[in-house]
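Shipment paperwork, digital attachment
Item: protein structure file
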Amino acid sequence: MPTQEEKWLEFSNHKFKLPVPYVIYADLECILEKISSCEQDPKISSTESIAKHVPCGFAYVIVGPDGAMIKPPTVFRGKNAIDQFLTKLLDEENQF
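Attachment content:
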């Protein structure tokens, strides 16, 4: 067993780090839909789901090694936002 001082593993060879050529900054938007549920028993500790997050859109931008945008931001609003987001990211992967 490691000692108290040795219990944490830390990266220290920063000279071996590689720069990342491209970064994707993304933002997903959701609508909160109310959930109907039965009444809880006040004598018993519990949690109650009152709403669920339903994805409704996203935007992302790809930034190159010089800090500039590679192309204009991609924006999507509509149904199946998560499926569209993943499809678009896979398309971007094929371009770079």
